[in-house]
Design brief:
This protein has 32 helices and five strands. By secondary structure, the protein is mostly helical. The longest helix has 27 residues.
Length: 608
């Protein structure tokens, strides 16, 4: 294939050095214009895709094209490639923080409630005190760190900054990714293209305000240290330095183990896979990880694991059940199905490119074999657990650092090595470059424009894969205000009944207020609620005694989640809401454009 980076520059001198800034700043200008003219007040089933101003897509195309031609040119400084990647992160991860007035994701709001509880209680609590939510007190690392950050910054809560967490957590990954890729190649084109592909393929959404986001960054950091400092050549340099790096990874391992349940297991299988390579047959990182992991599981996390162990054992080997989504997690409707397919095609394309890169780049099959092992290591986890029907997404996430590297190799005509560059200089690389410059247009098209089309397609596909379900994930200020009004007035011991937990502040005051989400119940009971809504709900809520109250809450976020994930249709939810509104046993407390709040009357009354 022809490599246009070997051609002489079209613009000599300083203009040739500065031209990459033109598409970069043009793309960012288009992005600024787009976010200023994007209206998210009426999201449809395609989420942010149809709400975005068209200039956003133009800016993303300009950015990708500028990056591709910049990174291929050996005369460009590495800072330009880094600037393009940072521009990509701004356009990918900061757009939602700018266009939405409130933070996304019900799970992020849940984590905010856990931190608020930690600040309020002043310490960890058991299941006898906070019920099922005690699991978060058994893995408190992330929440304790965020509580400390809240006090350090002097803000009211993490809601003040958690909308920007996807950008921050993505930036955490940049340095360890660069360290990993530089371990196996000096080719700047391959390194930065791999970083680009990693970010555009990371649509899984685990970069939001969560323990997983930090644990994953630390996971990649541990791999970077092991790959660079625990190979055979590094070990031969001397024990004192090796001891220092062992301490470094131990600190990171402790932070991972006390923050997240799954990541230590993924790290163990990756480190075990590395031991299959002769270059990294060092058992210190594996043993250290296993010892710390087991120590935590057998002490602080033992209450949760003791209760969950029977189900975990039953799921081992049941691959079919571990990868199926099941009721309440099946995309329903044109928009949900389209965005789901966009995500699948994006991941499938990257994995296919990775396989092509392994086949095409023979030098990498040997030189970067440890990275190939790391990419394949998470696959057996399919047989270990369903992880709440999310194991398939987590496996893709942990495969991504290695898969992105080999996918990038598939887009490049030939990966440079130091030895190859030296031989080319001795043979007269300028004559070779001149010969390449006279190659036929067809080969030039294959070598430049076809890979650019693939890169551009993946970059554009990221948006529907990542933001296509924002109708579910976005809660307008009116919905936040309605739920906040509920918890401001609910006495201790009260019960909140809702369709599902997809609304902001759903876990607010969980240590003093109980919750019941009826769509989590058996399907037979859900059918009874649909048939006789007010009577069935009133019966479910009747056990609450004064001064506590029983509330029924139905919001925009619950409806979106129910409709788009195959739970109840809009007509069924409207039937439930109208039945409650017409019942003399319920009284309307508050309502706005985002939902309704009712309270169950505690006096006797006949049911219509």
């Amino acid at each position: 294939m022809t490599d246009l980076s070997d051609l002489p520059p079209v613009w000599p001198g300083r203009r040739a050095l500065a031209w990459p800034g033109v598409p970069l700043f043009a793309a960012l200008a288009l992005w600024v214009y787009a976010v200023r003219h994007t209206d998210v007040s009426g999201l449809d089933d395609y989420g942010l895709i149809t709400a975005l101003h068209p200039t956003f897509w133009a800016g993303l195309a300009v950015l990708t094209t500028g990056f591709w031609f910049t990174v291929r040119d050996p005369r460009r400084r590495g800072g330009w490639a880094a600037a393009y990647v940072l521009g990509l992160l701004v356009m990918e991860r900061a757009t939602q923080a700018v266009v939405y007035p409130t933070p996304l994701y019900a799970w992020a709001w849940k984590h905010e409630a856990v931190i608020d509880h930690l600040l309020t209680a002043g310490g960890l609590q058991t299941a006898d005190q906070v019920g099922d939510m005690a699991v978060y007190d058994q893995w408190p690392g992330f929440f304790a760190a965020q509580a400390a950050l809240v006090r350090l910054l002097g803000v009211d809560s993490t809601a003040m900054f958690m909308a920007w967490w996807p950008l921050a957590s993505s930036l955490m990954l940049l340095l360890p990714l660069l360290l990993i890729y530089r371990t196996f190649t000096e080719d700047r084109r391959l390194i930065w293209t791999a970083v680009w592909l990693f970010y555009v393929a990371n649509w899984v959404g685990q970069d939001y305000f969560s323990p997983q986001s930090v644990a994953y960054a630390l996971h990649v950091g541990v791999l970077a240290v092991v790959l660079r400092r625990f190979g055979r050549s590094a070990v031969r340099r001397g024990q004192p330095r090796q001891a220092v790096w062992t301490v470094v990874i131990t600190v990171m391992l402790v932070a991972i183990v006390i923050s997240h349940q799954l990541t230590p297991g993924m790290l163990v299988v990756c480190l075990l896979a590395l031991c299959l390579s002769r270059r990294y047959r060092d058992w210190v990182p594996v043993v250290t990880t296993v010892v710390i992991f087991l120590a935590w599981c057998l002490t602080a996390a033992l209450p949760f694991l003791s209760a969950a162990m029977p189900d975990m054992i039953r799921s081992i080997g049941d691959v079919g059940a571990n990868v199926e989504t099941g009721y309440g997690a099946t995309p329903t409707g044109t928009g949900a199905i389209a965005t789901s397919w966009a995500a699948r095609l994006l991941s499938g394309s990257v994995l296919l490119l990775a396989a092509l890169g392994v086949l095409r780049q023979r030098v990498l099959r040997h030189r970067a074999r440890p990275l190939l092992l790391i990419a394949a290591a998470p696959l057996p986890m399919f047989a270990a657990s369903s992880y709440g029907s999310e194991m398939i997404f987590r496996v893709l996430l942990f495969m991504l650092p290695g898969a992105a590297f080999f996918a990038a190799a598939a887009l490049l005509p030939k990966v440079r090595t130091l030895a190859a560059d030296a031989a080319a200089r001795e043979a007269g690389s300028r004559q070779a470059a001149s010969a390449k410059g006279n190659a036929k247009g067809g080969r030039r098209w294959l070598g430049v424009w076809l890979p650019l089309a693939a890169l551009l397609g993946g970059t554009l596909a990221f948006v529907p894969a990542y933001s296509g379900k924002d109708r579910i994930n976005y809660f307008p200020p009116q919905e936040v205000a309605l739920v906040r009004q509920l918890f401001d007035q609910a006495p201790d011991g009260s019960l909140v009944v809702a369709a599902n937990r997809n609304y902001p502040l759903a876990y607010d005051s969980y240590w003093s207020v109980d919750h019941y989400w009826f769509l989590d119940d058996a399907r037979s009971h859900v059918d009874r609620i649909v048939q006789k809504p007010a009577a069935t709900l009133a019966s479910d809520m009747a056990g609450v005694e004064r001064p506590a109250r029983a509330y029924f809450l139905l919001t925009q976020g619950q409806s979106a989640n129910s409709e788009m994930n195959g739970q109840l249709t809009k007509a069924q939810l409207d039937r439930i809401r109208k039945s409650v509104a017409a019942s003399p046993r319920f009284r309307l407390v508050a309502q706005n454009s985002a939902g309704w709040l009712y309270v169950l009357k505690q006096s006797e009354g006949a049911e219509r």
